[in-house]
Amino acid sequence: MPSTSLHQNNKNHLNNQKMAISNSITKLYFLLLLHFGSQIALSYSSMVKFLPGFEGPLPFHLETGYVGVDESEDVQLFYYFVKSESNPEDDPLVLWLTGGPGCTSFTALIYEIGPLNFEAVQYNGSLPTLVLNPNSWTKAASIIFLDLPVGTGFSYARTSRASHSVDIQSCDQAVQFLRKWLIDHPEFISNPVYVGGDSYSGLTVPVIVQMMSNGNEAGIEPSINLKGYLLGNPITLPASESNYQIPFAHGMALISDELYESLKRSCRGEYQYPNIDPTNSLCLKDLQAFDQSISGIQNAHVLEKLCGFASPKPHELFGKRLLNEKSRELSVPEPSSLSAFSCRIDGYLLSYYWISDDRVQEALHIRKGSIGNWIRCDHGLSYTPTIKDSFHYHVNLSTKGYRSLIYSGDHDMIVPFLSTQAWIRSLNYSIVDDWHSWIVEGQVAGYTRTYSNGMTFVTVKGGGHTAPEYRPKECSVMFKRWIVQEPL
């Protein structure tokens, strides 16, 4: 073969090798982009150093952002992230979901466990004022407050199809969210992780934890350093939850002994639609008498004024008899009609006045036009509940050894502590630390019991639905002790 031909063949061979290497690199790049890159491209986070209504720079680390989930990332989940004010390098990371479904995690951030509260003063038409919360759980842990499911708060869908979700799908999106968030925040990959929530999240959080655990076992990266979960006033067995409302009401002296005994005889322990026999006239009559007896009671906290319950139609979770129709939907009045904080929901209205301000949304880095009007608890969410109960997920998670904290405000009649006690007891684990009081500042803050599966049950004395809003100091102490594995 002539030398020129040999030289040309060698040159062609070298070019082919270069092209093959280039193609391999390109293929690897796109594989990496598919696996990691989309969340880098479509995950956005920004520091928030100042907030309208708060004087001076924020004395804690606040970040907000969006993470795209699902294959096409048409679901954009919004979050607020507050870094631990103690030791963020080592402190646990908590993914927090507010209940509803459809209540924004801003509720937990401002009214329950976050570092800010609204100043409880009369609304005068100006921007509501923010003050520091001395009982913030972020003093012991970093917390991601996630707006979930899609359509909640500032989370939105880029297509009409993506705007609808069901329970299991939403749980999977939460898992996707956290893994993508950890990729964007690798400094937290080794931190202990807990998932928390309240009310309706009692159904979804155990599913999310199960999915995370299964993903870890399957080798999905990044691995989540999952340690456990915590739930407040959690819905667990919706089909039977309100059966405990009647013994609770009797124990609180809201109904007479005679009516209670008659209810037990006539209804035979089943007080919830659709399980009530429609031909059982005596039972129906007793239930009507019961409804009349509690018609003036605030179910979220039986000692508070009856002013409505600013949450998405809780009667739909348990049947209309449980809450009747007195749980009015929240509407925002004109500023002049709010004269004073006569009821707790007056404080909820401040969130609308504050977060609807253009300066606030700019500070929070909200994408303009991504949603319509912000709603704290969205009654019209396109969402289908599919999880019948979460009991068996607690069973599975117990066998895997995850820690859990289940707490109940003892004045909540929506999810009475009696129902929570009952399903925990039916797990049939032995008691390792029996029923006793726990103390905050020399006073009884509630009662607690710990089981051999690593589950701790706690009542919060004077707490409602949900406990941290009504007893912030006690719940903060409870959380701090539990998260560092100290006895309550």
Regarding quaternary structure, what we see is single chain
Overall spatial form: globular
- Ranges with pLDDT <50 over ≥5 residues? 1-11, 17-42, 310-339
Q: What is the second-level CATH architecture of the largest domain?
A: 3-Layer(aba) Sandwich
Q: Hey, roughly how much beta strand do the residues contain?
A: 15-25%
The helix content is 25-40%
- What class, by secondary structure content? alpha/beta
Q: Largest sheet, described in full?
A: 12 strands, mixed
Question: What key attributes describe this structure?
Answer:
disordered N terminus, 3 domains, alpha/beta, two-stranded antiparallel sheet, 36% helix, 16 strands, 488 residues, Rossmann fold, twelve-stranded mixed sheet
Describe the structure.
The protein is an alpha/beta fold. It has 3 domains: 3-41; 45-238 and 385-483, Rossmann fold (3-Layer(aba) Sandwich); 241-323, no CATH class. 36% of the residues lie in helices and 18% in strands. It has helices at residues 3-42, 106-112, 167-184, 201-217, 245-251, 257-267, 281-293, 315-318, 320-323, 344-355, 358-363, 391-399, 417-426, 467-470, 472-483, and strands spanning 44-48, 62-69, 75-82, 93-97, 116-118, 130-132, 142-146, 156-157, 165-166, 193-198, 226-232, 383-384, 403-409, 431-440, 443-451, 455-460. Strands 1, 2, 3, 4, 7, 8, 10, 11, 13, 14, 15 and 16 form a 12-stranded mixed sheet that branches. A two-stranded antiparallel sheet has the order 5-6. α3 (167-184) packs across α4, α4 (201-217) runs parallel beside α12 and α6 (257-267) packs antiparallel against α7 (281-293). Mean pLDDT is 87; it is low at 1-11, 17-42 and 310-339.
